[in-house]
Description:
By secondary structure, this protein is α/β, with parallel strands linked by helices. 43% of the residues lie in helices and 16% in strands.
Amino acid sequence: MPRALITGITGQDGQHLSEFLHEKGYEVFGLMKGQNNPKAESLLAEFPFIRLVSGDLTDFSSLVAALRVVEPTEVYNLGAISFVAMSFNQAELTSNVTGVGVLRMLEAIRLVGGPNNNPIRFYQASSSEMYGQVREIPQSELTAFHPRSPYGVAKVFGHHMTVNYRESYGLHASSGILFNHEGPRRGYEFVTRKISHSVARIKLGLQDTLLLGNLAAKRDWGYAGDYVKAMWLMLQQDQPDDYVIATGETHEITEFLQLAFECAGLGDWKKYVGIDKQYFRPAEVDLLVGDASKAEQKLGWKREVDFPSLVEMMVRHDLDMEARRAK
Ligand code: NAP
Ligand code: G4F
């Protein structure tokens, strides 16, 4: 039976990937940080099949110990400080977890090896944030990086380390350059979930306004459930490689706002949305749009959920959730 060790198990993608791998017959292990992580209980309540092992991406020996206990056939490194805004305020922590954490895991895999002398296959959660101030449109695996945040810089480090360990030691290490992906499990700090959640609360009379930052940014937004399939497909290939995973469409935040407010029957979003300087970033990524043709051709991957369906899925989920809470 294949065994997966997932770092970032409590995050959006960790949850989707656990569910997906479990359905495929995997034994699923998750790396859990902290001495009494409050997220453990709710995670196990929803996904009772997950087995937790203690460890932290900033602690090398804990990663070695986790690999020895689990003996995984595949490692998915999703753990990170992933909130770009926070990375400006905690640049050193972000570099340590999101950047050097990748090196620690690669080195641990190289030293521990895999069960029965089978090499462990490794997935690195790289990001479209690495393109930052984009050099070409759309962005592909060959586009040069110009990161615009400590988070983006850390992801570039992790990406290059993954490529380097593949080339230097022959590790089956693949890097997925994933564009923004969202859904009802998205953290409330990210703009799409902040909007869908606020729309639900405004509709139910629990909130009056929604304060946001730069509304002119454009993102290539897909559904997280579609994107974790691509992670798995990368590790099933004979040869490791790097792949862009994206929808190929870009939308302004105002388009997300328009669809979300309409979906809840609230009409014009401008009546409810205000601008607050605190949500602007020292440097912005203005536009992202990915070219996933390599993944489509080589992995047979294709997104299933389109942009309007994604917005609707998130708003309907949050309307139901807030209505249940209000009872
Ligand atoms: P997320 O919801 O923010 O989850 C991040 C996870 O990392 C959490 O489980 C968190 O654990 C864990 N973590 C934080 N610090 C850690 C540490 N020191 N050691 C071990 N684990 C730690 O992120 P996501 O949206 O699921 O994204 C998954 C990965 O894909 C991340 O690496 C992210 O940077 C990358 N990515 C995401 C997107 C996207 O649009 N979602 C796009 C491209 C790349 P706690 O909950 O215990 O803090
Ligand atoms: O939702 P965001 O915080 O996502 P961002 O910065 O694009 O990063 C996400 O996607 C990356 C992939 O490209 C991941 F690697 C990363 O881990 C994360 O998952 O912000 C999206 C846009 C930004 O331009 C931001 O300035 O929305 C703008 N924005 C405007 N008002 C806001 C807000 N973002 C947030 N979070 N909150 C606001 O109030």
